[in-house]
Amino acid sequence: MLHELIEPTRHDLWQPVSAFSDQSGYQLFLTQREALLRVLNARKGRPQAYVQDRAKIAHLALAVKPELVSSNDYEILEVGTGIGKAALTIQDTTHHHHHITATNVLTDPTDAKAILNAGIDLYTGMPAEFLPSEWSNRFDVVMTSCVLGWTDTTVAIPHILDVMKPKGIWVGLESGSAYCFDDPNTYLIDRIHDIALQHNTTNCLSHEQRYAYNQQFNLFPFVFTKP
Ligand SMILES: C[S@@+](CC[C@H](N)C(=O)[O-])C[C@H]1O[C@@H](n2cnc3c(N)ncnc32)[C@H](O)[C@@H]1O
């Protein structure tokens, strides 16, 4: 179970969520996350951190794109939504004026119900490494919060950049002290910037803004705009 959570590889697991059976592995992820952290940290040899306030990424997205509140019909995607807090916060704050899609590897049935009841499209069994090619150039806003550290960044990041519309933004928050899961000697945030730069995409936040945010929250923010 944990192995599947950490290293999902099955492309054919994608499914839109419309009904729920009983317990999913996501509850296990939440309730046994200390166990998961021990497994992950043993493999990485470095500490991994979690975001505490799970709406933070939504607040950051609203801060950098305030027109989300006044305009309609943006396509918004949250990759690795977890309990759905960020997607739900955007939905509430913008009064359901946009089309929001959320993906997860696994989703707890109760969380999934809340996400779907809010009118958000939810895909489970969809790792960031396997975002569908039919989503290319689709999203105005992509959000990720404490997700990239669980992925093969060399595969996941190009997929995320691919699903962004030209001029679309990717708003992300990752632990400033996390290392890549696929390379325990490289800071996650450096890897993200390197790959984004290879795709001609740069962080719109100034060094000072990033540094100040990281100092305050121990989280490194980034806002990439696709050329
Ligand atoms: C620390 S939680 C963050 C959840 C949510 N973004 C939040 O901030 O509340 C990490 C999330 O990454 C998801 N995850 C793990 N491996 C992933 C992968 N390869 N692709 C996408 N998401 C993944 C987990 O299922 C989990 O929901």
Walk me through what this model shows:
With about 230 residues, the protein is an alpha/beta fold. It has one domain (about 1-5, about 20-225): Rossmann fold (3-Layer(aba) Sandwich). It is about 40% helix and about 20% strand. The chain has helices at about 1-5, 25-30, 35-45, 55-65, 65-70, 85-95, 110-115, 155-165, 190-200, 205-215, and strands at about 15, 75-80, 100-105, 120-125, 140-145, 165-175, 220-225. Helix 4 crosses helix 6 and helix 8 (about 155-165) packs across helix 9. It binds S-adenosylmethionine.
Shape: globular
Strand content: 15-25%
CATH fold topology:
Rossmann fold
Structural class designation? alpha/beta
Key features of this structure:
single chain; about 230 residues; alpha/beta; Rossmann fold; 7-stranded mixed β-sheet; about 20% strand; binds S-adenosylmethionine
Topology:
Elements: H1 2-6, E1 15-16, H2 25-31, H3 33-44, H4 56-64, H5 67-70, E2 75-79, H6 85-93, E3 99-103, H7 109-117, E4 121-124, E5 139-145, H8 153-163, E6 164-175, H9 188-198, H10 207-217, E7 219-225
Parallel strand pairs: 2-3, 2-5, 3-4, 5-6
Antiparallel strand pairs: 1-4, 6-7
Helix pairs in contact: 4-6, 8-9
The structure holds S-adenosylmethionine (SAM).
